[in-house]
Every structure is written in structure tokens, then in C-alpha cells.
Design goal:
It catalyses: diphosphate + H2O = 2 phosphate + H(+). The protein has about 425 residues and is an alpha/beta fold. The protein has helices at about 15-30, 45-55, 70, 85-95, 115-125, 135, 175-180, 235-245, 250-265, 275-290, 290-305, 310-315, 340-345, 345-360, 385-395, 410-420, and strands spanning about 5-10, 35-40, 80, 100-105, 110-115, 145, 160-165, 165-170, 185-190, 205-210, 225-230, 320-325, 325-335, 365-370, 375-380, 400-405.
């Protein structure tokens, strides 16, 4: 999948990340750029509901931005067949600077012949000794690569064969890897490195559009487009970008942007919601042809059904990493109409959180169990953070849990007090 610009949201994508990246990629396309939206993980039920409702295809999954061997391989260095003569091999080496000659049999990779070994064969002609065949000289290389391997694993010196499902493709070297054009990436709904797809150091960030805090240590080679606004949803900012560009928002894209705003503001119930979010939502609802309240509750109910999710899936739902005082912790969130069933599973949910925490050596892993109806959150957590949590929320911690009335926003009401307490 080759495109000039990838537009992506964060890992464990929520509806804002899925929908805003699709909408931003569409805007880039309408402006004449070769852009495509990608996702960093699997969508949740709420996101899938919005995509299906507005008949938009889910964007492809991209797990990393590392330069691949297949992007750097020299495909013009054709392999010699096993039936080739020594003269054919000599001519091959004469035309290529490589120290190894690839050998194939009907396209299937057989091995390599060393330049030095071929030279030894011609010494035999002086002595009148019997010469070997190319097939006899071919041997397994000390190191080879598949097209999907990471380019940074290619040693600084030497040339190496590349295969694809056993078939010879070409040769690769570190110099070729270094020449590969970097993938341009536009970040939406995140900016912290821990939330970005792996391998971003081997790509080129060309823009960031976000509504979160500025965190992490992102660095770019030159100036880039950056737009941060203290609104409830990235989709609100994307909507403004369409208006600024004087480009009409397509009906399906308006539906996705509206879905993102409804999701991030919990249908305007979240304290992060601003007048800008509400105004944008009204415009988008008119374009999409839906009633905000009716569609919004239908979408939220679809996302709130977690009955078929495993404890591990719930613990990882909409999970984000954060760094405070040099320590990394995670905060996941599930939004439901009724918290009763989830709180009844508290013991197994804490076990799933502890497993996640221990595997990645997080200082803590939190799960916000948020009630859409009551507009409150039960915050449970794994890790030795009782004192920090008690200090952060000025509340008693009982069995790794604290009840937070009128708390729905991770960004505004949970992360800042935890970071401050840390």
C-alpha cells in the first residue's frame, strides 16, 4: 500500500481517531494530495456502528512505519539459473559490484555463489583440474532477508539476498535502505510518542491536529503544520479545516465527524464539550441528515454493549499510555449505560489490568468504568498507586477503586490530577 501521506489516529483507536483520520484524509484528497487514512488498531463497536451507518469502509491497519526490506531491494540483480556456466557467473560479477551471486531454480531461491569461490575455479583451469558447476558452488547465505523484514536490521556492510515465500526477489544493502523515501505521516487526535504507531522515527511527520495536552518528545527535521485547540473533539477541528479550505463536507464524512463529536463529548455531557463542538455538531447533523439526539443515543448504546468482550478486551479498551515523573501508566475507558454488570466483574477486571501492567512494566494500569446515564466513573486500577489516587481525587480508595461523581473525561478530569499527584 503506497501513498504519499498516511493520516492516522492513535493506538487502541476510539471513534474520534477512526472518524477524524478518515475525514482528514478525505480533505487532503479533495485538495489534490495522495493521502489515505490508516488505523493503528482494531475499531470498537461504536466506531463500527458509525462506519456502517454512513456506509464508509474501515481504513487499513498499519502496525508500524519501519522501512521494509522490500522497499529497498535491488530487483534488477537477477539470479542465475543453476544450469548457468562459470562464464555466465563471471559476466554477472563483471556487471555487478556485489560479492555474492544469487542462484535460483525456476524462480525458487537456491543459494549464493561467492565471488572469491568463482575466482578459485578459474585458478583450477591453470592447473588443469576439473571445474565445479554453479549448482555445486551455490550454498546457503550466512544471512538473508524476506521482503517484510525491517530494513534497519540489514548490516552496515555487505549485500544480502531477499526472498518472498521462497522465491528470489533481489539483493539489499544498508545503503539502499538509507535511500528509501520516508513515509509522510499526518497525526490526528494524538501527539505523544507512546500513542503513535511504532517506527515513527523512520517516517516523516508532516502535521499534527489534536485536542489533547502536548506531551512526549516528538522531533521533526523541519517546520510542520501543527494545530491544537482546547475543544472536546478532534473532529471539531477537522470540520473547521474543511470550512477554512472552502470545501464542502461530503454527507458520509459529515456523519463520521458528527459521530466523533458525539462520542468524545458523550452527547455533550462531558465537561470537555465546548460551544464550538456543539455548533459543529449542528452543522454536521444537517449535512448528514440525522437527528443528533436520536442518532447519538443509538450510537452510544451500540458502543456501550460490552457483554461479549473478555476481561482482557475490556481492560485494553481505548487504552492510552501516559508518562508522569518518568513513569509510564495506562488509562483505559469503557462507557456504558449501566455499570452494574462490569462492577460485578471487578475482580477479574483487576486481574486483567494487573496482567497488562506487569507485562509492560507499567507503574499502574487504570480502567474508567463510566456511566453515560449517571455521568460518573468508577475508577479501578492495578499497581501500587493507592496514595497517588487518594491524593489526586481527594477521595478514599477502597479495594483498588475510587468513585468519581460527575467525572466522564479522561483528558480533563482524570489525567491532570493523576499527573499532578505524581
Amino acid at each position: 500500500m503506497k501513498h504519499d501521506i498516511f493520516v492516522t489516529g492513535h493506538r487502541s483507536p476510539d471513534t474520534d481517531s477512526i472518524c477524524s483520520s478518515l475525514a482528514m484524509a478525505k480533505l487532503k484528497q479533495l485538495q489534490g494530495f495522495d493521502a489515505v487514512a490508516v488505523r493503528a488498531g482494531e475499531p470498537n463497536k461504536e466506531s463500527l456502528f458509525a462506519l456502517q451507518y454512513f456506509h464508509v469502509e474501515l481504513q487499513p491497519l498499519v502496525t508500524d512505519f519501519y522501512v521494509k526490506v522490500g522497499d529497498a531491494v535491488y530487483t534488477d540483480m537477477a539470479a542465475l539459473p543453476v544450469s548457468a556456466s562459470l562464464k555466465d557467473a563471471a559476466n554477472w560479477f563483471r556487471g555487478h559490484a556485489a560479492d555474492i551471486l544469487p542462484v535460483s531454480d525456476g524462480g525458487k531461491f537456491v543459494g549464493v555463489v561467492d565471488r572469491a569461490a568463482l575466482a578459485e575455479e578459474f585458478i583450477k583451469t591453470v592447473r588443469g583440474e576439473e571445474l565445479s558447476t554453479i549448482k555445486a558452488l551455490a550454498h546457503d547465505p550466512a544471512l538473508s532477508f524476506a521482503v517484510g523484514d525491517n530494513g534497519h536490521d540489514v548490516p552496515a556492510e555487505g549485500t544480502y539476498p531477499v526472498t518472498d515465500d521462497g522465491k528470489y526477489v533481489g539483493l539489499v544493502c544498508a545503503e539502499a535502505v538509507a535511500k528509501v523515501k520516508k513515509q509522510k505521516v499526518f497525526l490526528v487526535d494524538h501527539n505523544e510518542k507512546k500513542q503513535i504507531i511504532d517506527g515513527i522515527d523512520e517516517a516523516e511527520i508532516i502535521g499534527v491536529l489534536d485536542h489533547h495536552r502536548i506531551g512526549g518528545t516528538l522531533a521533526t527535521a523541519g517546520p510542520i503544520f501543527i494545530l491544537f485547540k482546547p475543544v472536546g473533539c478532534s473532529a471539531t477541528i477537522v470540520t473547521e479545516q474543511y470550512e477554512a479550505a472552502h470545501i464542502a463536507i461530503p454527507k458520509d464524512i459529515a456523519g463520521l465527524l458528527l459521530s466523533a463529536i458525539i462520542s468524545d463529548t458523550v452527547l455533550f455531557r462531558s465537561p470537555t464539550c465546548t460551544e464550538e463542538d456543539k455548533q459543529a455538531a449542528c452543522k454536521l447533523a444537517e449535512i448528514a441528515g440525522v437527528d443528533i439526539e436520536t442518532y447519538g443515543m443509538e450510537m452510544l448504546k451500540a458502543g456501550a454493549n460490552v457483554s461479549d468482550l473478555t476481561p482482557d478486551q475490556i481492560a485494553h479498551n481505548d487504552m492510552k499510555e501516559f508518562n508522569g515523573n518518568g513513569k509510564t501508566f495506562t488509562v483505559s475507558q469503557v462507557q456504558v449505560m449501566d455499570t452494574t454488570d462490569l462492577l460485578a466483574q471487578k475482580k477479574v477486571l483487576l486481574s486483567a489490568l494487573e496482567k497488562m501492567r506487569a507485562e509492560k512494566n507499567y507503574v499502574a494500569s487504570f480502567l474508567m468504568i463510566t456511566s453515560i446515564i449517571d455521568e460518573s466513573t468508577n475508577l479501578i486500577f492495578a499497581g501500587n498507586m493507592d496514595d497517588i489516587v487518594a491524593k489526586a481525587f481527594a477521595a478514599d480508595v477502597l479495594d483498588k477503586e475510587v468513585f468519581l461523581p460527575q467525572v466522564m473525561s479522561r483528558k480533563k478530569q482524570v489525567i491532570p490530577p493523576i499527573l499532578s499527584a505524581m
